């Protein structure tokens, strides 16, 4: 029987793809030959989720696979160095992930720079369906993810005690292919974005807080929604939103919601099964596609 070291590349690669990720890391420690083969071989791992936390003294990495028994993931490395993280990310660069989370640390700005450098030197961009960033430095990380694989982007604050935080490099973020190709975007309301509302019309689902919007932009959003085949949900917060002003462009609102929402209903072009419902409450406005049969009996659906 041949030993691992005597096998050719193809069966060795097949064996590695059958191993769980923790076993691959263990095999890597057996000898230099195995380590070099694992580091130089492109193979898919069983990982589905990766969470990287930048701590005050290094990185912590938690990984999991789609197996339902991996409910909370396995912490592979705690307080690891940038070299350790480089090894882990190199091993997963050929895998299709569902979720990738980066949590930054305001006390370790250099940690984010180290992560950026690691991703920049990867031979190929990482593949994940959803990317979540806790912190404002998304521009340092997002460009190194495959723009065709990425579908959902979320940006969360690391400090909920400071409202009105600005995103670093928002202008460049809006021009990234990852932003343009994604289908869903969630930017927590603790961040204020300075950008034209129309920049977000290509998404299926959006949550964002803009510094300022005009009535003309809200009308443009409504028109985009009723003529679109892809838009499903758009939640917007901005300074100066006022029901009286909205009434000027959307007409008299419908008031029969248990939470006191003001609502408007509009037909969607070439679609009898759904309508557009606009909700206004608590300084925010929501646009969503609603099944026609769920429209309140006394509500007027405008054209």
What's the layout of helices and strands?
Elements: H1 9-18, H2 21-28, H3 32-40, E1 49-55, E2 58-64, E3 74-80, H4 82-91, E4 96-103, H5 109-120, E5 127-134, E6 152-156, E7 165-166, H6 170-173, H7 177-181, E8 184-187, E9 191-192, E10 205-212, H8 215-227, E11 233-239, H9 243-250, E12 262-268, E13 271-281, E14 284-291, E15 301-302
Parallel strand pairs: 1-4, 4-5, 5-6, 6-8, 7-9, 8-10, 10-11, 12-15
Antiparallel strand pairs: 1-2, 2-3, 11-14, 12-13, 13-14
Structure overview:
The chain has 303 residues and is an alpha/beta fold. It has one domain. 26% of the residues lie in helices and 31% in strands. The chain is built from 9 helices and 15 strands. It has helices at 9-18, 21-28, 32-40, 82-91, 109-120, 170-173, 177-181, 215-227, 243-250, and strands spanning 49-55, 58-64, 74-80, 96-103, 127-134, 152-156, 165-166, 184-187, 191-192, 205-212, 233-239, 262-268, 271-281, 284-291, 301-302. Strands 3-2-1-4-5-6-8-10-11-14-13-12-15 form a 13-stranded mixed beta sheet, covered by helices on one side. Strands 7-9 form a two-stranded parallel ribbon. A hairpin with a 2-residue loop joins strand 13 (271-281) and strand 14. Helix 4 (82-91) packs parallel to helix 5 (109-120). The model is unreliable at 68-73 (pLDDT under 50).
